[in-house]
User: Fold this.
Amino acid sequence: MSFADGRVPLPGPSLSAVETVPIGRLLRADSPRRLGENDEHIRLLAQSEQPLPPIVVHRPTMRVIDGMHRLQATRLRGGRDIQVRFYDGPSEDAFVLAVEANVVHGLPLSAPDRTAAAARIIRTHPNWSNRAIASVTGLSAKTVGAQRRRMSTGAAEQSARVGRDGRVRPVSCTEGRLIASRLIAENPTASLRAIAQKAGISPGTVRDVRERLKRGEDPVPRKRAGSGSGRARGRTAAAHPPPACDPPAQQTRMSADVREAMFRSLCRDPSLRLTETGRLLLRMMEIHMADAQQWERIADAVPAHCADSIAAMATACAEVWQDLASRLRHSASAPGALASLNSRSHTMW
Assistant:
């Protein structure tokens, strides 16, 4: 399987059987060695009595992928033929194979050569993860990430990248967390591994999302929910300060789409929709399913002379829901917990 299909295979399975090829048919490599071959290394190979391993050649162009030192050593020995294993993939992938081969054996690539190779692979394979490129170039993922940031042109980045195992994962966990939250709301009994596979995140991240939803929190931590640097967010906040009284949909920590998906799932639960108390609870929650725009229209329509009273009632209602949330967290397994509201709740509702 070639590199072009998005995976990062080892060189072996992509190469042909060994063939004997006339040296005159071969072209110089598109080498990751910016300074070319090392003459001393070529002489050492030529003087060795050991047979040289087959070189790797890109069949469509007949350029050497791996083995220029062995090719030159064979010429120095007076040989006319050389053993070859062919690679049939794209030229861009042939370069990747050359880098990987020269990292794991032979005369190692210098650090500047590896860095330059990583930059080239970032340009030709932008959908590869930093770890995948690091595994090819012998650099650290952090170094590859820094190189990618330096090369950034401000264009839209890939939303997902291919990892070392060939799996596609989102660049940011934010999207994966939101997908996982919807899957959990639709099927609360689904396994962590099943949800992780569909959402493109790790089972551990799915577990964190599930725990956040149980606590009534947004599945995306605040530090990941924002975009851009803290300095940029600070400038945005300064230019657009928040209103003195945000609508409830903006204050809640659970995003609107996750709240809606969870509400739909609860409405399908027989233990709620087939009992009087459950239906009452669903109707009470449905009132709060308005989106941000609806809350803004409601706030704008409130007469000024009763704004303070309505604000006080809204706060009191929020406290009742907090009382219910606290009771459920501490006694979720107790029979009749949903119906056992305190006297304050009965008074408000």
